[in-house]
Amino acid sequence: MSLHNIYYKFTIINLHMYRKIILFSLCFIITAQIFAQQQEKQSEKDIKRQERKQHIADLIKREEEGALIYNKQSLFGFKLNTDGWTAIYEHGKYKTITTTNTWFVEIGERKSHKEERITPSDPYTGYPVGNSFIYGKQNVFYNVNIGIGQQRLIGGKGAKNGVAVSAIYGGGFSAGLLKPYYVTVYDPNTGETEDVKYQGASDTLFLNYPISGAGLTKGFGEMKFVPGLVAHAGLRFDYGRYNELLSALEIGVSAEFYTKDMPIMVNAQAKQFFYNAYVAIEFGFRK
To answer: DSSP string of 221-255?
Structure first.
């Protein structure tokens, strides 16, 4: 075998070895990088896991100390007012350990203290006939309130089964809606019955000859809108066992002012300013 052939074979062998070495090195580098990335990811997961555990521990500690900890809350409730009723929805966003910013929507009805419901009855049998009605009622007064406010924690629960006390206050815009109140009357001039609304001081038919209510839906197409302002303040007692759930009793006062007089009863003076005390039952959740 010539020297040239030996050199050629030796070169081929070296090239194969170099290729194997390069391939092995690449595999080693890639494996090392993958392992390093996995270690890094595992380390990040461990850090996040520890942070999560610490966060949960802090929440538990603060909850045991009586603090209400959450990002946002939603509640539904029903108010019984001294002059009517109100259904409410409130959404709150956590600001500080003692303060939550809120916005609310309320739908309710304002009533006059002079309202008296009459149930028509058969003069011979005494059994009810027709729909009950409120004598002398001129308008049904609905209101829709939209506004913003705050919930400020006064006293924490102290324990899981304690009661958190918060001050509630807010204000916004009110839409006063006046729906004419219809009654069914007997017209002695025609001997027939008809549904009528109050037409003014000279309206003797509406006041003297009502025999039945005309129904709740009568008059919705004639509803009038009157803008106004609303404000309220109260105390909320949250007795929910866990911070995730809200079960509360709220007491407070509310006031509304409208740009026009809001007549409800024929025999009562119309007014623009309404105020009341209320008690509310509220349920909701936090997260």
So the answer is: GG-EEEEEEEEEEEEEEE--SSTTEEEEEEEEEEE
Cα distance between residue 121 and residue 118, in whole Å: 9
> How many other C-beta atoms can be found within 10 angstroms of the C-beta atom of residue 87?
14
The neighbour count for residue 229, using CB atoms within 10 Å, is 15
Predicted confidence at residue 93, as pLDDT, reads: 92
Q: Give the chain's length.
A: 287
User: Which pLDDT score is estimated for 279?
Assistant: 98
Are the C-beta atoms of residues 256 and 232 closer than 8 Å to each other?
no
* Cα torsion 73, 77, 80, 86: sign: positive
Question: What is the C-alpha to C-alpha distance for residues 114 and 285, in angstroms, rounded to an integer?
Answer: 39
Q: Are 266 and 198 in contact (CB under 8 A)?
A: yes
Q: Rounded to whole angstroms, how far apart are CA atoms 117 and 127?
A: 16
Categorize the per-residue pLDDT at 3 as very low, low, confident or very high, splitting at 50, 70 and 90.
very low
Residue with token string 């538990």: 60
The pTM score is 0.74
Alpha carbon 30 to chain centroid distance?
56
User: CA-CA distances (angstroms) from residue 67 to 98, 165, 233, 240, 245?
Assistant: 8, 11, 22, 13, 14
Is the pLDDT at 23 greater than 80? The verdict is no
Helices vs. strands in the chain: H and E counts, helices first: 2, 13
